[in-house]
Fold this sequence. Notes:
- This protein is about 35% helix and about 20% strand.
- It is an alpha/beta fold.
- The radius of gyration is 19 Å and the shape is elongated.
- It starts with 7 loop residues before the first strand and ends in an 11-residue tail after the last strand.
Amino acid sequence: xxxxxxxxxxxxxxxxxxxxxxxxxxxxxxxxxxxxxxxxxxxxxxxxxxxxxxxxxxxxxxxxxxxxxxxxxxxxxxxxxxxxxxxxxxxxxxxxxxxxxxxxxxxxxxxxxxxxxxxxxxxxxxxxxxxxxxxxxxxxxxxxxxxxxxxxxxxxxxxxxxxxxxxxxxxxxxxxxxxxxxxxxxxxxxxxxxxxxxxxxxxxxxxxxxxxxxxxxxxxxxxxxxxxxxxxxxxxxxxxxxxxxxxxxxxxxxxxxxxxxxxxxxxxxxxxxxxxxxxxxxxx
Length: 284
């Protein structure tokens, strides 16, 4: 799509995605203004762009700063931990903003994102997905690396998809690890990397488990999509898994070539799957 006049605003959490979005947009000739969430993103990574750091409690100041830079379109990108009430320390404008967000700020991750996007829209911003400004983020269904999953691995993927859907319906997490039908771990507020760290000590003898990631039921595709990258592959390898399976057209694949190469070198399968193929009651 043709970008509108004016800079793109990026509300940046942690990880490499917001940096890549900023670099790609700037390379296209469009200005970028980055509001870095304090404690999540690294302001030093945005030295080439207009940027400022804001803690959650100063969210109203952040929106005013974006408006001051002429921003109309905003991307929410990067990893963010949901704040606790005591950590917010909002200013007067922040108190009013929190009142508009309501209790959603302290329930599920998708709940707060929907609330934040509503507030942004009410303030005149258009929220767009990172995939709309950075092509190639969401792989189509394909085996990207490694051997094709055997029947046991496919059964683990089917089991993992059902578990992820149950977690997502409760707005908890987007991933789990399944080995031989046993759920070794589910993703909650700690995130995928920390979940994988726990799995090594929990693995059973025999064929290794599978990391499964998918979009939550009813989740907005504008923010907080499941993400896989080189670090995920390294974590899966350290945990003794034999593959990673993620929802096609709904999961961000960071550093695509590097991630695929690392999975292939490790002998792990990397599968972007169509959920319909692994939904109980359907045929493969």
